[in-house]
């Protein structure tokens, strides 16, 4: 893990394709995620760093904004209804809240039992949780940055070709001290990573003076 | 009237209260219930209960049991969580439920999937089809903002705290309260992603029957939907009847209704091989 302190940037590193990442973003700091290769789903969970029982809640977030898509201005709410992070900027038009994370187990339903051995986001999340004494009971529905999940009028939904591109990015301002846990999605059975998982860049910046 | 200033007086006073009745609460023994669904024999009955406004129930159901949830007066909102009773770390996963089935809306034949690629419960009958798998439940904060109060000790209990208390009785904690589904309140996603709550009144007496495909802990709260636009805390009683039965088999059309369902049932069947005989 490379941590550079250059001016206002307190962290700037690349998360390899298929890998997990976890880090604390202090209140007021901004986390930038850059989709280096384009159409790379970034599965994303947020916890109150001082009480991980409080964590990102997809239902509370989408109910508060009355919309399933995350766009600039969207606020990630906790399961107690508290603001955790604000999407202050995004050059990708929208992001997903309902698709959840891929797992070895769900892959068997979606793509067949032969996919059980493939790596998956839940594996990344559980490994990252294990570094901090957290575990499966800390799993909940996650955000999927740069992932495209439309819902048709009859309720049909699915992960379809992405609307991101190389270099598109988003900025999240921490509204409390948060633990961010990321799975740089390794899925190769659907278009969420363009069938080719790629690295993403993570930058944390201090608040402006 | 006995005085309650002595132990014998207090005991007599307490015992005299058993003559009172309430429209809410369990029927015991359950087999004595007379208003059973057609075809359900009293010997098979497992559970009969009415959940009042703001209340909750939590119950273990054996594999194969069917539970009928009835929107008795047309304004119930059944907030559901389901855990595997074999190993409660396996629990409802709403994201997998909608994603794996390529369908955001619950209805007849829908499966409630666990995070382990297995079926927890399947919807075998649904006369409502007005449900929601996206919006979760109210919190102390959201009910306080909307109704002026949200404590479970007050008149507008919030769903999240009711869930936390309910799962605690199975040894689970607040960390185990995951996104839930809601029956009898109708939410749809519009073209631009907007959530639309159907304000039309529901049909009194509509019901949903869910079959436990493995032993489960079923948690049901009955609190107003978070998108319900009415300023008052309005929710009407939820009827519950459960009876013994068998899990879904290959002979059932639902087993192979879709390739995803078939593999989910195969995974569920496979897990039974881990059970002690």
3D architecture notes:
The complex is a heterodimer of chains A (209) and B (277). With 209 residues, chain A is α+β, with helices and mostly antiparallel strands. Chain A has one domain (14-28, 37-155, 176-202). Chain A is 12% helix and 29% strand. Chain A is built from three helices and ten strands, in the order E-E-E-E-H-E-E-H-H-E-E-E-E. Chain A has helices at 58-65, 104-111, 121-130; strands at residues 9-15, 20-25, 30-35, 42-48, 75-77, 83-90, 143-145, 168-174, 178-184, 200-205. A six-stranded antiparallel sheet of chain A has the order 1-10-3-8-6-5. Chain A has a four-stranded antiparallel sheet with strand order 2-9-4-7, with helices on one face. In chain A, strand 5 (75-77) and strand 6 (83-90) form a beta hairpin. The model of chain A is unreliable at 1-7 (pLDDT under 50). Chain B is an alpha+beta fold and 277 residues long. Chain B has one domain (23-272). Chain B is 18% helix and 25% strand. Chain B has five helices and 14 strands. Chain B has helices spanning 7-16, 94-100, 140-147, 159-168, 259-272; strands spanning 25-26, 45-51, 56-61, 66-71, 78-84, 111-113, 119-126, 131-132, 181-183, 187-189, 195-197, 206-212, 216-222, 238-243. Chain B has a seven-stranded antiparallel sheet. Chain B has a five-stranded antiparallel sheet with strand order 3-13-5-9-8, with helices on one face. In chain B, strand 10 and strand 11 form a beta hairpin. The longest helix of chain B is centred in the last third of the chain and has 14 residues, at 259-272. The model of chain B has no long low-confidence stretch (mean pLDDT 97).
Write the SSE topology.
The complex is a heterodimer of chains A (209) and B (277).
Chain A: E1 9-15, E2 20-25, E3 30-35, E4 42-48, H1 58-65, E5 75-77, E6 83-90, H2 104-111, H3 121-130, E7 143-145, E8 168-174, E9 178-184, E10 200-205
Antiparallel strand pairs in A: 1-10, 2-9, 3-8, 3-10, 4-7, 4-9, 5-6, 6-8
Chain B: H1 7-16, E1 25-26, E2 45-51, E3 56-61, E4 66-71, E5 78-84, H2 94-100, E6 111-113, E7 119-126, E8 131-132, H3 140-147, H4 159-168, E9 181-183, E10 187-189, E11 195-197, E12 206-212, E13 216-222, E14 238-243, H5 259-272
Antiparallel strand pairs in B: 1-2, 2-14, 3-13, 4-12, 4-14, 5-9, 5-13, 6-7, 7-12, 8-9, 10-11
């Amino acid at each position: 893990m490379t941590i550079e302190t250059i001016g206002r940037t307190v962290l700037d590193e690349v998360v390899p394709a298929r890998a997990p990442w976890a880090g604390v973003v202090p209140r007021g700091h901004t986390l930038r995620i850059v989709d280096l290769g384009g159409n790379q789903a970034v599965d994303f969970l947020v916890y109150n760093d001082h009480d991980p029982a409080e964590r990102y809640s997809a239902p509370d977030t989408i109910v508060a904004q009355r919309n399933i898509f995350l766009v600039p201005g969207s606020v990630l709410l906790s399961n107690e209804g508290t603001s955790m992070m604000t999407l202050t900027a995004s050059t990708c038009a929208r992001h997903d809240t309902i698709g959840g994370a891929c797992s070895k187990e769900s892959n068997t339903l979606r793509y067949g039992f032969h996919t059980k051995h493939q790596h998956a986001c839940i594996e990344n999340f559980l490994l990252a949780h294990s570094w901090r004494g957290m575990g499966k009971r800390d799993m909940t529905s996650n955000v999927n940055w740069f992932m495209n999940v439309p819902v048709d009028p009859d309720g049909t939904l699915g992960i379809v070709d992405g609307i991101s591109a190389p270099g598109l990015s988003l900025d999240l301002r921490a509204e409390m001290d948060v633990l961010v846990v990321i799975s740089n999605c390794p899925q190769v059975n659907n278009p969420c990573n363009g069938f080719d998982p790629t690295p993403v860049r993570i930058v944390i910046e201090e608040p402006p003076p | 009237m006995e005085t309650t200033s002595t132990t014998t007086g207090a005991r007599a006073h307490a015992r005299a209260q058993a003559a009172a009745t309430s429209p809410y609460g369990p029927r015991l023994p359950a087999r004595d219930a007379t208003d059973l669904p057609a075809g359900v024999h009293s010997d098979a009955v497992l559970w009969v209960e009415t959940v009042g406004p703001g209340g909750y129930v939590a119950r273990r159901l054996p594999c194969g049991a069917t539970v009928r949830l009835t929107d008795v007066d047309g304004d119930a909102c059944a907030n559901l969580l389901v855990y595997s009773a074999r190993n409660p770390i396996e629990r409802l996963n709403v994201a997998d439920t909608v994603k794996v089935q390529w369908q955001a809306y619950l209805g007849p034949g829908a499966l409630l999937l666990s995070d382990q690629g297995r079926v927890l419960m399947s919807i075998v009958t649904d006369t409502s089809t007005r449900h929601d798998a996206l919006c979760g439940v109210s919190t102390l904060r959201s009910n306080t903002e909307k109704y002026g109060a949200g404590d479970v000790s007050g008149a507008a209990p919030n769903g999240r705290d009711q869930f936390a208390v309910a799962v605690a009785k199975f040894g689970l904690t607040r960390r185990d309260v995951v996104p839930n589904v809601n029956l009898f309140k109708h939410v749809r996603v519009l073209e631009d992603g907007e959530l639309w709550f159907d304000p039309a009144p529901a049909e009194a007496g509509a019901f949903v029957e869910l079959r436990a495909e493995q032993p489960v802990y079923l948690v049901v709260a009955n609190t107003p939907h978070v998108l319900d636009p009415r300023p008052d805390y309005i929710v009407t009683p939820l009827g519950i009847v459960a009876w013994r039965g068998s899990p879904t088999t290959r002979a059932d059309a639902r087993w192979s209704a879709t390739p995803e369902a078939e593999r989910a049932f195969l995974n569920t069947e496979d897990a039974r091989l881990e059970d002690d005989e």
